[in-house]
Structure formats: structure tokens, C-alpha cells
């Protein structure tokens, strides 16, 4: 019968030691976490400074090239759905519509402008003025 009592005493002692250690640790800690917060803020500020320095350094030519490639791809994507069908130096009447996120706009229609024609707004579209015969945009100019 002495054996179960020894086990109970040892387990009780271990639990008491663990609880005492936890209480001692809490009592020896600072009353608030200002040190942690200050250290976190200092680290964040240092990270921002290092990041900005890397962006502005002359060694960032690879990052700059990637940025310019992405910028050019975005500029080409503005003509999505109309690739290859634009005439250089030709003015167009372009109607924009709201696109799906994250893109803000999409081209809803485009009409090449003809010299001497007056264009007016008719609903959500562009039409020729009332003093000209009506010509609706061709199927290739609206999408």
C-alpha cells in the first residue's frame, strides 16, 4: 500500500513544482508588454528602412527590369479583346465599362472616327449626330 501513496505524493509534488514555477515566472515578468511592443515597432521600422534602401539602390536593376516588364504588359492588356485591330494614328471613340475586380475598366466598344462626322451620346453608346445618316458600329467594333 505504500507504493500508491508514494506515486500520489510524487505526482502532487510535480504538479506543485510546475504551478510554483509558472507563478514565479509571471511574478518576475514586467507588469505590461511595453518592451515587446517597442521592440516590435523598432523591428518594423528597421525593416521598412532596409526595404526602401534596397528599392532605391543601384543594385536593384533586376527589380526595375521586372517592374518595367509588368508595366508594359499592363499597358498592352488595356487593349484586351482588341489586339491587332487598332490602326495607328487613327482616332477612336471608345466606351469604357466597369470590369471585374481587380481590373477597374474594360473597353465596351470602339468606333473609328470619320472626318466630318459629328458623334453624340445615345444611351450608353456613341452614335452619329442627328444631321447625318445613322451608321451603327460594326460587329467587330463592339464586344
Characterize the structure shown:
The chain is α+β, with helices and mostly antiparallel strands and 143 residues long. It has two domains: 2-74, no CATH class; 84-141, no CATH class. The chain has helices spanning 2-28, 34-56, 61-77; strands at residues 92-98, 105-112, 119-122, 125-128. A two-stranded antiparallel sheet has the order 1-2. The protein has a two-stranded antiparallel ribbon with strand order 3-4. Strand 3 and strand 4 form a beta hairpin. The chain starts with a helix and ends in a 15-residue tail after the last strand. 1% of the residues are buried. The model is unreliable at 138-143 (pLDDT under 50).
Distance between the termini: 91 Å
Residue share in helix: 40-55%
Order of strands, widest sheet: 1-2
Roughly what fraction of the amino acids lie in strands?
Answer: 15-25%
Shape: elongated
Largest sheet: 2 strands, antiparallel
| Unreliable sequence segments | 138-143
- What would the average pLDDT be, to the nearest integer? 76
Counted beta strands: 4
What are the SSEs and their pairings?
Blueprint (H helix, E strand, L loop, with lengths): L1 H27 L5 H23 L4 H17 L14 E7 L6 E8 L6 E4 L2 E4 L15
Antiparallel strand pairs: 1-2, 3-4
Amino acid at each position: 500500500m505504500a507504493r500508491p501513496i508514494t506515486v500520489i505524493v510524487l505526482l502532487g509534488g510535480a504538479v506543485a513544482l510546475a504551478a510554483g514555477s509558472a507563478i514565479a515566472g509571471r511574478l518576475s515578468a514586467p507588469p505590461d508588454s511595453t518592451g515587446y511592443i517597442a521592440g516590435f515597432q523598432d523591428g518594423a521600422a528597421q525593416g521598412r528602412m532596409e526595404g526602401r534602401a534596397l528599392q532605391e539602390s543601384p543594385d536593384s536593376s533586376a527589380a526595375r527590369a521586372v517592374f518595367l516588364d509588368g508595366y508594359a504588359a499592363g499597358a498592352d492588356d488595356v487593349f484586351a479583346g482588341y489586339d491587332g485591330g487598332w490602326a495607328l494614328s487613327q482616332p477612336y471613340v471608345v466606351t469604357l465599362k466597369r470590369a471585374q475586380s481587380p481590373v477597374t475598366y474594360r473597353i465596351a466598344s470602339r468606333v473609328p472616327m470619320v472626318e466630318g462626322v459629328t458623334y453624340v451620346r445615345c444611351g450608353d453608346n456613341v452614335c452619329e449626330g442627328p444631321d447625318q445618316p445613322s451608321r451603327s458600329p460594326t460587329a467587330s467594333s463592339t464586344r
